[in-house]
Every structure is written in structure tokens, then in C-alpha cells.
Prior knowledge:
Chain A is α+β, with helices and mostly antiparallel strands. Chain A has helices at 34-43, 190-198, 266-272, 288-303; strands at residues 2-6, 10-14, 52-56, 61-64, 68-74, 79-81, 84-86, 92-94, 99-102, 110-115, 149-150, 161-163, 175-181, 200-203, 211-215, 226-231, 236-239, 245-248, 255-258, 260-264, 280-285, 306-308.
Amino acid sequence: xxxxxxxxxxxxxxxxxxxxxxxxxxxxxxxxxxxxxxxxxxxxxxxxxxxxxxxxxxxxxxxxxxxxxxxxxxxxxxxxxxxxxxxxxxxxxxxxxxxxxxxxxxxxxxxxxxxxxxxxxxxxxxxxxxxxxxxxxxxxxxxxxxxxxxxxxxxxxxxxxxxxxxxxxxxxxxxxxxxxxxxxxxxxxxxxxxxxxxxxxxxxxxxxxxxxxxxxxxxxxxxxxxxxxxxxxxxxxxxxxxxxxxxxxxxxxxxxxxxxxxxxxxxxxxxxxxxxxxxxxxxxxxxxxxxxxxxxxxxxxxxxxxxxx
Amino acid sequence: xxxxxxxxxxxxxxxxxxxxxxxxxxxxxxxxxxxxxxxxxxxxxxxxxxxxxxxxxxxxxxxxxxxxxxxxxxxxxxxxxxxxxxxxxxxxxxxxxxxxxxxxxxxxxxxxxxxxxxxxxxxxxxxxxxxxxxxxxxxxxxxxxxxxxxxxxxxxxxxxxxxxxxxxxxxxxxxxxxxxxxxxxxxxxxxxxxxxxxxxxxxxxxxxxxxxxxxxxxxx
Lengths: 309, 220
């Protein structure tokens, strides 16, 4: 059991998300940065889809009520146990009475906390992920609050593990986001497409789990920005009337009526979700085949990222 | 282009995919005239998936869709529940009662559910009620609000921004996160509105909150 002493600005329970409900308008939710989330679970011997916490900007302060293990990954939020610094990207053993806290992010914006055994919450439509706007899943469909009590599942004792130094993302500098053009790339002028692929775009603070709002060179439409509404994929890049792109994320609307110039590759969606307001990215066009090759490489890299101590 | 025939084709293709099962397909999202297919590229390659879908396409026949459901939704028109009714009627050159009667007299087709959980995009609005969307979309529309805009009718499922003229409200919950099955309507459903007074609205809203009222759902 874990008691929430301080919840942090926006801390939600997530697992790998719910599948099959987009046709009812319910998004998959789940961690914005899936790779960091999966590594946290693997560090404590959990299956990849065990429920853990996604922390935004800063993490929570938690009281541990039973011995166990946890791991912190994702944004560089300093981890401490009883006010002493503890390592991130590594299994950390904890005892009953320990106070664990995850501080303000210095790089990146979304941090992850996994607990051996996973958070034991009811499955809602097949998942424990929180969908905030729909008040669905997770901990009563909402972000954590002070005093919440989180039960843990039965964890198997696992050896201490660590993510190799070379496999820890840095979350700094300008991000290169690979995209496949379409499905409405034909609704932009050639100059508009060139602007999109050449310009630098800045993350805006209005961004959330639904979408990353960006600001940069205006992308010119060929004939208006409205389409007959259709489905929006994860990573879909919508360009609305003001010519600015929005990358749609895990809690996105299932359908929409604005032109989509491109789709960001699954492997790069997490990187977008780690950009702080003011941080910059550039889009780079690739083919569907290259996107799938990247996905295979990313999966292999994830499998090779962890070693036992 | 928006047409019931085209939308039926989309739903028929989705139905085929769901009933036959296409290797690697994870989920599907129908809309007016397209079907978004999510797939796992570790299970099926892009080219192979496209080939499999192309092969299915000629077999997607609307006649093979399961029989539609008819869902009757109580709706209270005008006043503070349908706060744009008078303005919309003025814009259309109709009396408010006439607009409400025309709206409640029609049968609607749920083309698809989208945007927010459980929100139906419906066709079937009488031509006489076609109306441009609001010039200034409002930032918050209460759930249950029934709106018209263009040739469409929709029902807001959660509080959200919107550009439709709100002419009525239903006490039913189109999205209820506490329910086992949180979404009321399905793509392909037929919807009819039953005109109720504001007193009955309050009574039904209380019954819905108490879990003692369920909508009438019958084969269409």
C-alpha cells in the first residue's frame, strides 16, 4: 500500500491503455512516453502493461506502507527516499515507512514511477489507464490527490536492474520528429508542405495529454482547413485555420474535422511528449516502411536497454 | 460529401473486418466516408494489410449489416434547456414550436460516434432545418444538449465547446463513465426524439441519476 502525501501537479495512473473503444469516442490513453513507462515496469519485474504513475512537471511525495521495490524513469525528476537522493533508471528497494519523492523536472516533462506488483485498481473497459476528460479508469477517473491510498498487486521478488547509461534518453536539444505525410497532405500547397518540413516549431504551454500545440512558420492550406470529419490516428498532425500544427496524443479526440498534414511515427510520439514549453522540434519526412523499421529497432533497443546488477 | 449510402458502405466494411477478423487489425474507427484502421505492423505488413482490405471491399454490402436499433430519446425543447431554439427559429423563419415539431418528427441515422465519448454524428435533419453553424462557437455546452448545424444533428455527451444551435436537451446520459457499458448509442442506430415538457425532463433526469430509467431501444 502507498499513501499519497503530496500528489504533484498532475499525477495519473496509467497502463498501456485501452483498445477497441475509439469507435465509441473513447481514446486509448496510457503513458505519453511509452518507452520510459515500459522500462520502469521492467526494472521492477512487472509486465509491460502493469499500472504505474505518470507525473507531469514534478512528481508526488509518497509514503510507502509495505516493503517493495520501485523505479523512476522518464523526465529528469530527482528521486529521493527519506530526503536522500536515490538513483533513477534503476530498481530501488523501499521499506515500510519510507517517504519517496520525485522532484521538479530539470529535463523532459513527464516522469514515470513503477512499483513491483503494479498498482492494483479495477479494470475499466479492459484497462487501468486514466482518461481525465472522460473521468474514466485509473484512480476514480481523476488525477491523484493528497490522502489517496494505492494498493499494490503481488510482486515477484526480482533482481535489481539498471538501464544501461547509453540507453537513457537525454530529453534535451531540438527534437527530430519523423513523419509520414498524409492523409490530407494534398490539402496543402507545395510551399506549405516545405514550410512544415523545414521550419522549427516550438512547444506551447497549452499542450496536454490530448495534443501538443506548436508554434512556428505558418503552413499554407491549398483550399481551406475544414474536411468532412474522419478518424485521427495517434501522432496525427492537425493544421487548423491559423496554419499551426497540433500533434494529437494518447487522450486525443477520436475524430475531427481539420486537415491532417502528416502522422508522427509511433517511436517519436514519446519524444514530443517530453518537450517542455518553449522547446523546439523539426519534422522530417520518411516512408511507412522506414517507420516500421524504426519501430523494430526501437523494440530491440528497449529489449537491450536493461541489465541485471 | 456526406450521404447515408456512403456511410453504410463504411460501416459494412467495418462490420466485415470485425466479423471475419483481419490479421493484425487492432481497432477501427468509422466516420462519414472513411474507416480508420489501426494495425500492428509486427503482425501484418502495410502492403499485405492493404491487399487484404482491398479484397474485402467488394464484399462490404450494407445489406449484410446487422438490423439497426431504434433508440427513443426524450427531449425537452426551448427554454433554458434548448437555449438557442428561439434564435434558430428566427434565423430559419419558423416559429419555435414549428421547429421543435419538425425536429422531433424526423428519424435520424447515427453515422458514427466521435470527437468526445459517445457523441453521435447524425444525419436525417429535415432540409427545412438546415442552418449555418454558430459564428462564435461557445466554450461550454452542457451534456445532453441537442444541437443542429449544417445538415447535422448532434448530442453533446460531455461538457465541451461547440458550434451547434442548441434547441433541446435529453435527460439521458450518452456517456456515463460509471456504467458497465458507458456509451449509449452505436454507429448505425436510428434515433427518434420524444418531445417532453420541462417538468417531465426534471423527473426523468432524477430517474436517470437514480438508475431507474432506461431508454426505449427496439429493432428499427
